[in-house]
Amino acid sequence: MEEKDKVFTEAGEDHIAEKPPSLREAEGDPNQNVEQSLNLTSQGVAEGGQEDENTPEVGDKQEKLPNLIDMEEKDKVFTEAGEDQTAEKPPILREAEGDPNQNVEQSLNMTLQGAAEGQQDDENTPEMGDKQVCNYAKGKWVVDDSLPLYSGFDCKQWLAPGWACRLMQRTEFSYEKLRWQPKDCKMERFKGDEFLKRMQGKTLAFVGDSLGRQQFQSLMCMITGGLERNDVLDVGGEYGLAVPENGRPDGWAYRFPTTNTTVLYYWSSCLSDVERIDPEDPNTHYAMHLDRPPAFLRENLHRIHVLVLNTGHHWNRGKLSANRWVMHVGGVKNTNKRLSTMGDLKNFTIHSIVSWVNSKLPENPQLQAFYRSISPRHFSGGEWNTGGSCDNTIPMSIGKEIVDEESKDYSAWHAVQGTGVKILDITSSSKLRDEGHISRYSLTAKRGMQDCLHWCLPGVPDSWNEILYAQIK
C-alpha cells in the first residue's frame, strides 16, 4: 500500500517560539549572554513542545534492517543505518577533545554564540545585484484559476495515492486554486521546462522527513505537469538508493535526460547519522549522532547543486523509544543535562547540520543550500490519537495575509544566521492553510483519526516549490 497516508504518524510539535530576549539584544558579557540564550531557548522550546512526550503513532514498528524501511508506509520507522564512523565532524566539534560532556558544553556555547553574533547583520537587508532579496514569507494567498499545475487524478508516476486527495472521499477542492503572492516583490510563475533549463546539468536534493518527501513528489509533478514521462531515468543506484530485494530504498533519484537534471529525495527524519550499536544483534539499539550529518550527505554533497533540508516532527520521545534511538554527541552517549529535552536536542542538531553544510560551502561553490522551516500541524480538539481534527474545507478561514517580517520557526531562523545557508520559510504561510490537509478523507484512515500534518497534493507544498524556484540561480 502506498504511504497509508503515513497514517498520521508524525505527531511532533511545531515548536514555534518567540525569540529569547537575550538573543534580541545581546549586550554585556558575551559568555553570560550565551549561557542565558541557551537556557531561555531550551526553556521556550520545552514549554512550546509538550507534545514531545507523545507515544508512538499508529503503525510505528521497528524494522530489523535499516534498508528495509517501508518508506511509503507508516512513516518508515526511521532507522537509517549510518556509515563511516570516522566521518568528519561539524566545525563546532571538530577540535573537541577530552571530557565528552565538556566538549558538548563548548559546542553548545559556540553554536549559540555564533548565532547571536550572526544577528548583527540583521539590520542590513541582503541584496542581489541592485535589487533587494524578497521576503517570501511575507505576503498573502490569492485565488488563481490557472492552478493547479498538475491534476490530482494524474501524476501517478510520482505521486503516492495516499496524498492524492482527488482519489479520496473529499468533494471540495478549492484549496487547489490558491497561490502564494509575496508582498512587495514579484515571484516568477513556475514552468517545468524553465525549471529544467535553469537546472541543466545540476542536481537538486531534498533531505528530510515525509514532509520533505511531499515536497519532492510535488516538484516531480510540477516539472512534468503530472504527465507520464517514460524518458525520465531512475538513477537511484548512482546514489546508493537502489531498491532492496525485499524492501524499499532510503530515497529516490530521477534524471531528466534532455537537460541532465537530477531531482532526488533521501529519507533522514532527524538529519543525523544513525548506526547500529551492535551490528550483529537484529534487535540492537541505534546510535543517533546529533553532531554528525547523514552518511548520504557526507558522500554526495559534492554532487549536489541545490540542497533542501528539513526536520521537526519526529522529535518526540515516543518515536525515539519506538526506533530504539540513543542520542550521541561527540561519539559517545549524551549525558549532558543541557541536552535533555526534545527541544534542546532538535535545536542542537539543526545548528549542527547547518554549521556543517556552511563549512562545506567554500569547497562546494556550486552549492545553494536551504533549510526549510517547519510545516505546521492543524490538530484541533485533540491530537492524532485523541480525536484531533482539521475538518475545515473553506480556504483562508484563518486569514489570508502574513505581515510579520520575522520567521515563526525560530529554531530554523536562528540556525542559519551568519551562515551561507538560506531559510526556505514556509511556516507562516502554511499556517493559514488548515483546509489543505488530508484530514479525515483518507481511504485507509482508522475511524476517529485524521491526518492534520500531511497535505493534499496538489496543494500547499506546491507553493513551497514555487518559493524555492524563485531563489534558485
Structural overview:
This protein is of the alpha/beta class and 473 residues long. The protein has one domain (4-118, 136-471). Helix content is 26%, strand content 15%. The chain contains 12 helices and 18 strands. The strands form 5 sheets. A 7-stranded mixed β-sheet has the order 6-7-8-5-11-14-16, sandwiched between helices. A 4-stranded mixed β-sheet has the order 9-10-12-13. Helix 2 (30-48) packs across helix 4 (100-118) and helix 9 packs parallel to helix 10. It is globular, with a radius of gyration of 21 Å. Residues 1-74, 80-99 are annotated as: Disordered. Pfam families: PC-Esterase (PF13839), PMR5N (PF14416). Residues 30-44 have a biased composition (Polar residues). Its main location: membrane.
Short description:
The protein has 473 residues and is α/β, with parallel strands linked by helices. Helix content is 26%, strand content 15%. The protein has one domain.
Indicate the topology.
Layout: H1 21-24, H2 30-48, H3 91-94, H4 100-118, E1 127-128, E2 131-132, E3 139-143, E4 178-182, H5 192-198, E5 203-208, H6 210-224, E6 233-234, E7 251-256, E8 261-267, E9 273-276, E10 286-289, H7 295-300, E11 306-309, H8 317-322, E12 325-329, E13 332-333, H9 342-360, E14 368-372, E15 401-402, H10 410-416, E16 422-424, H11 427-431, E17 437-439, E18 451-455, H12 460-471
Parallel strand pairs: 5-8, 5-11, 10-12, 11-14, 14-16
Antiparallel strand pairs: 1-2, 3-4, 3-15, 6-7, 7-8, 9-10, 12-13, 17-18
Helix pairs in contact: 2-4, 2-9, 6-12, 9-10
